[in-house]
């Protein structure tokens, strides 16, 4: 997966579309994601959170994606999502070294719980570490705090004004760290809750205006946002959108249905409906993101 990720995002910028990041922790979910992206000729980002990576295995997910890339003939970025999000044992960046050794071609370092200065300091070190290994490795930093987890919740998620990304600070962050991509907090949250996400489109536009072409603008928490808001976000400069919860819900729902309504015990017979459910979500997202027919 020796990709020119810069070119992929450059093409997205020129074409005015966003590349989808889809999280997974099992081979079945990955089959649904990549199968759909290949059919729609869309560049795609497969991602694992720390928990997802621990479950599937870093080396295993790399090999799986490599095999799919050869077969599908579409570019696949494999991103380590929210690495160090709790800022635990960050000192020697061991987790990132292990991910790079395993073969990930993209790293998202999440320093959003740190102070601005510490976030800059650590993100810069991550960029240096990754580029030393291979200048082609794409690095995402995060500025601003996006609350919530990738789950369905009945709780109201509070978005405090201080969580939101400041456009002027965004430029300072990008310049000081050298990140390829910038994840921002623009009014939404991770997961699906019963309050509808409302993106601050004006803020997205201001951040884009401030950072220009210095970094790719990334929207996290892509689940549960109405399509027209997603289209507006893309029109204002978002070029990568992360989706997880909607995929989890689709996979879980379809699997539950098949396991409770049929006596089927053969995995390769009871998994396909769940894979199809993931595929349908991915198809919908790629359609809204406009990335189809670009690979
Ligand atoms: O990093 C992953 C995404 O931000 C997932 O967010 O679960 O709301 O789709 P989501
Ligand atoms: Zn996220």
UniProtKB/TrEMBL annotation:
Binding, Zn(2+) 2? 110, 142
The coenzyme or cofactor needed here is: Zn(2+)
Q: Which species is this UniProt entry from?
A: Candidatus Azambacteria bacterium RBG_16_47_10
Name the SUPFAM superfamilies on file.
Aldolase
Superkingdom field: Bacteria
Q: Which amino acid positions bind Zn(2+) 1, per UniProt? A: 82, 190, 220
- Name its GO BP terms in alphabetical order: carbohydrate metabolic process
Q: How is the cofactor bound?
A: Binds 2 Zn(2+) ions per subunit. One is catalytic and the other provides a structural contribution.
UniProt entry keywords in alphabetical sequence: Metal-binding, Zinc
Q: Does the keyword Protein biosynthesis apply?
A: no
Q: What is this protein called?
A: Tagatose-bisphosphate aldolase
């Amino acid at each position: 997966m020796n990709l020119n990720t810069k070119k992929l995002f450059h093409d997205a910028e020129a074409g005015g579309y966003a590349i989808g990041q889809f999280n997974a922790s099992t081979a079945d979910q990955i089959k649904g994601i990549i199968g759909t992206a290949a059919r729609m000729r869309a560049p795609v980002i497969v991602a694992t959170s720390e928990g997802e990576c621990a479950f599937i295995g870093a080396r295993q997910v790399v090999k799986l994606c490599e095999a799919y890339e050869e077969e599908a003939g579409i570019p696949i970025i494999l991103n380590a999502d929210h690495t160090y999000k709790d800022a635990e044992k960050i000192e020697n960046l061991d987790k990132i070294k292990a991910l790079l050794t395993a073969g990930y071609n993209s790293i998202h370092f999440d320093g959003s719980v740190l102070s601005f200065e510490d976030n800059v300091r650590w993100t810069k070190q991550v960029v240096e570490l990754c580029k030393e290994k291979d200048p082609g490795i794409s690095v995402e930093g995060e500025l601003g705090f996006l609350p919530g987890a990738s789950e369905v919740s009945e709780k109201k998620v509070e978005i405090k004004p201080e969580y939101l990304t400041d456009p002027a600070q965004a430029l300072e962050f990008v310049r000081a760290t050298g990140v390829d991509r910038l994840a921002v907090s623009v009014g939404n949250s991770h997961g699906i809750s019963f309050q509808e996400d409302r993106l601050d489109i004006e803020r997205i536009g201001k951040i884009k205006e401030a950072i220009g072409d210095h970094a790719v603008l990334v929207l996290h928490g892509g689940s549960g946002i109405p399509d027209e808001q997603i289209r507006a976000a893309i029109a204002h400069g978002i070029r990568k959108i992360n989706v997880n919860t909607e995929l989890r819900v689709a996979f879980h729902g379809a699997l539950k249905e098949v396991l409770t309504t049929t006596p089927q015990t053969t995995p390769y017979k009871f998994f396909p409906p769940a894979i199809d459910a993931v595929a349908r979500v991915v198809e919908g997202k790629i359609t809204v993101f406009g990335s189809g027919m670009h690979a």
